[in-house]
Structures are given as structure tokens and as C-alpha cells.
Design a protein that fits this description.
Blueprint: H1 2-13, E1 19-23, H2 24-43, E2 48-49, H3 51-82, H4 95-120, H5 130-143, H6 147-154, H7 160-168, H8 170-184, H9 187-210, H10 230-248, E3 254-255, H11 267-278, H12 283-302, H13 308-327, E4 330-334
Parallel strand pairs: 2-3
Antiparallel strand pairs: 1-4
Helix pairs in contact: 2-4, 2-9, 3-8, 4-8, 4-9, 7-12, 8-9, 9-11, 9-13, 11-12, 11-13
Length: 345
């Protein structure tokens, strides 16, 4: 009887904790949405969003990604047949898991891209070129001269179209990678890749506010790439126009998807590093993804989208995003803490 009474007393002293478990990718999406709404209220921007253009871009990106993924999967199957290897493995997931992973990844990727656009619109409101001058001096201290000048001296002008393609292949490459992992690889790895990309977006866009800068192509005359790639130059001019429009008329400007600039850190570079990390499961995929990361880093500096030091910032963002993804795949939010009997003798 005494034991039963003691147990009853202990159970009455302890409050059972209740916790809500949220996957990290959903948690990041909700936090980014909250930040975007707060910034909309703060600056009264991102109200007039051209959703039609966004849907058109999403549609074409998905078409390209699905087509490329089918090609990769079929090519993989062909290699397996020629090598008399089976494509099935012990870790291969069911079709339902694959399809649900694809749907979830695509939804969160485009949702966070949309939210990211809204947050990024306010980065350069009221900003000047002081941070750009500071970042340029860091580049010169590390490299001896401007990074874009070094890249253009080392690489022939005939390579400009190739590097322009590499730079703009960024978003399709991310989608192709996620879909390929889900279809032909492992759902768990595809989810981690998606989560790390979303975490990288969030860390990166907050970093923009800590050190707002335009980027060399938008500030310095010597950084223009008009003679190297008219397509890239036209895109840079358009991005500068939309960024200035938001800065001058935040309440009335129409927000366009992915049409705003910010230099430090380079999320292009951070995301391709994340890509290489999750594609290290074979020598071939590691080599291809690492090569793409290197070429992307070169293209960002070659066309003066970023300073050289921005790439170092991108590495830091990638490492932090990967660490958080690996360590905190699920966020547990406790509603009640467990109360202990501190008065025990």
C-alpha cells in the first residue's frame, strides 16, 4: 500500500510533457513565411505580386526538371542493364513514398522560393554602396585585384556563353537533383537535400540583411559583362531595375519572382555545395556535382554577380545548412515541461 501511495504521489508531481514534432523543412517554411509577413508590414512591400509570371516560371522549371530526370533515370537503367546489374536495392523506397517525396519537395521548394522573393525585396531599401566598397577591398586584399578581372584574364571570351548557361542552370539543376534522388536513389537523401536547400535559403536571406550589398556588376563600371554575354547583361540590368523600383516605390511596385539582387553570401554557390554533399554516394555523382559547383562558383565571379569573398560566405552557409539538416531533421516543440520534485531529501 505504501508503494502504491508513493507511486501515486510521484505521478501527481510530474506533469506529462506534450510535444509537437515538426519536420525541419516544414519548420523553416513556416518561419520564413512569418518573417516575410513581418517584413511586408514593416516596409509595405510585396503586396502586388505577379503570381501569373511565377506560375509560368514554375511550370517551365518542372517540365525541364522532369524531362531531365527521366533521361537520367533511363540512362541509369541502361547502364545497369549493360553492366548486368540490378537497379533495385535494399534501400529502394515504394512508389507511394517516392511520389509523396516528389510532391512534398516540389511544393516546399516553390513555396520557399516565393517567400524568399518577398523577403529579398526589402534587402536594399535605403542601402548605399559602402558595403560594396568594403567587400571589394577584401577581394583585393585576398586576391590582389578584383575577382572578376582575374577570372576574365584567365578564361577566354569564347567561354562566356558556356558560363552563362552554367549560372542560369542553377534552379533546374536543383530540381533535377531532388527528383533524380527520389526516383532513382533514396527518398531519405532527397528529403535531406530539399531540407538543406530550404535552410540555406533562410540563412542566406537573413545574411543579406546583416550585410546588404548590390554586387560588383551593379556598382562598378569595370565589372560590366555587356561585351561578354548580352543575355547575362540584360538579366543584370533587369534585376537592377526591379530592385530600384522596390526601393523607390515599395507600396506600389509589382513584385516579380527571383528578380532582386543581393551579394553576400552567394546562395548560388552554397546550394551547389549542398548538392555535391548529398551526391557523394558514388564516385561519378560526386565528380559531376563537384564539377558543377566549381563551374558555378567561377561563373558567379566571371560575370561579377558576386565578389570572391561572397563564395566564402556561401561555403559557410552550406556547412551550417548541412549541419542543421543532419542534426535536427525533426524539431520537437514542448507544450509543457516536466516538473520535478526539487524538495526531495
Amino acid at each position: 500500500m505504501e508503494t502504491r501511495s508513493t507511486n501515486s504521489e510521484e505521478s501527481s508531481l510530474a506533469i506529462q510533457s506534450w510535444s509537437m514534432r515538426l519536420p525541419l523543412d516544414w519548420t523553416v517554411s513556416l518561419v520564413m513565411l512569418t518573417v516575410a509577413l513581418l517584413l511586408c508590414i514593416r516596409w509595405n512591400v510585396a503586396i502586388n505580386f505577379d503570381f501569373k509570371i511565377y506560375l509560368e516560371i514554375c511550370f517551365y522549371l518542372i517540365i525541364v526538371a522532369v524531362a531531365a530526370t527521366l533521361g537520367l533515370v533511363l540512362g541509369r537503367e541502361l547502364v545497369n542493364i549493360i553492366g548486368k546489374k540490378t537497379s533495385l536495392s535494399e534501400t529502394q523506397d515504394s512508389r507511394l513514398e517516392v511520389y509523396s517525396c516528389i510532391a512534398r519537395s516540389l511544393f516546399l521548394f516553390f513555396l520557399c522560393s516565393w517567400i524568399y522573393t518577398h523577403i529579398k525585396t526589402g534587402v536594399l531599401i535605403g542601402a548605399d554602396d559602402r558595403n560594396d566598397l568594403w567587400l571589394r577591398e577584401i577581394d583585393r586584399w585576398i586576391l590582389g585585384k578584383d575577382g572578376w578581372l582575374i577570372a576574365r584574364q584567365l578564361l577566354p571570351e569564347t567561354s562566356s556563353n558556356f558560363f552563362s548557361f552554367i549560372y542560369f542552370a542553377f534552379a533546374p539543376a536543383l530540381l533535377v537533383s531532388i527528383l533524380y534522388l527520389a526516383c532513382a536513389g533514396n527518398v531519405a537523401r532527397a528529403r535531406k537535400l530539399t531540407t538543406a536547400i530550404l535552410v540555406g535559403y533562410f540563412i542566406g536571406v537573413l545574411s543579406y540583411f546583416l550585410l546588404p550589398a548590390y554586387g560588383p556588376a551593379f556598382i562598378f563600371e569595370s565589372a560590366t559583362c555587356e561585351n561578354l554575354s548580352p543575355v547575362t547583361h540584360e538579366a543584370q540590368v533587369k534585376l537592377l531595375e526591379t530592385t530600384n523600383e522596390i526601393s523607390q516605390n515599395p507600396a506600389t511596385a509589382v513584385v516579380l519572382p527571383w528578380m532582386y539582387i543581393a551579394a553576400f553570401p552567394s546562395l548560388h554557390f552554397s546550394h551547389v555545395i549542398i548538392l555535391a554533399w548529398y551526391f557523394r554516394f558514388s564516385r561519378l555523382t560526386l565528380v559531376v556535382s563537384s564539377l558543377f559547383a566549381v563551374l558555378t562558383g567561377i561563373s558567379t565571379v566571371y560575370f561579377a554577380w558576386h565578389y570572391g569573398v561572397d563564395l566564402l560566405g556561401g561555403v559557410a552557409v552550406a556547412c551550417l545548412a548541412i549541419f542543421l539538416t543532419e542534426k535536427y531533421s525533426v524539431i520537437s516543440i514542448s507544450a509543457f515541461g516536466k516538473q520535478s520534485d526539487s524538495g526531495e531529501d
